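Late entry, evening session. Most of the bench is empty. Finally got around to the prediction I had been postponing all week. Sequence below, unchanged from the version circulated by S.P.
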Amino acid sequence: MSGGTLSLGTASLAASSAVNISTGTLLNLNFSGTNHITTLRINGLTQAPGTWGSLTSSASNKTSLITGTGLLNITGTQPPYDAWALASGLDNSTAAKDASSTADSDHDGVSNLMEYATKMNGNVSDTVPQSATKNGSVIDFIYTKNKSATDVTYTVEWSDTLGNDWSTSGVSAPTILNDNGVTQVVKVSVPADGAMQRFVRLRVTSP
């Protein structure tokens, strides 16, 4: 739904249904009981499983975009990126709450995708949890990994010019320094090769 009100007089949605509503629309559940469906998306983001209803309902999750006495029970899974975005207050309701992966909603120079991958808060101006330290013939690069971000790829690269020569040559396999169940602190060694200057970065990609 992208405008107006959709009113359901019975719990008639199929169990495999996906319901999409957005700011400026209303879904009126004008029935008693619970309608079981697979997916609920609000402003393009998949919501958490469980019961959903109006602000005055008994649902475990409430939204002003749903009215009436009926409930929706969401049985499907929520993508980890959508869960992170919503937890960060990014719900696509306004431009300032843009949850797209390329956006920088908190204006800290870090994309939402990088903030998600490193377990930052997409609604707070902060810095990427990473560091680089020269250690003899290598540079130890340490970064934080969000364990829930199972849909992204982490790549450590180096360059001597900040041009188009970013490379993974000689970069070691990652070593986990700490794991608290939510995040991991990961170390990767990058060859120094006696270079006058060497830049190291974490690149995060998503399918």
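Two things to note before I forget:
Residues 130-205 form a domain with the Immunoglobulin-like fold (CATH 2.60.40).
The CA atoms of residues 89 and 123 lie 6 Å apart.
Will write this up properly tomorrow.
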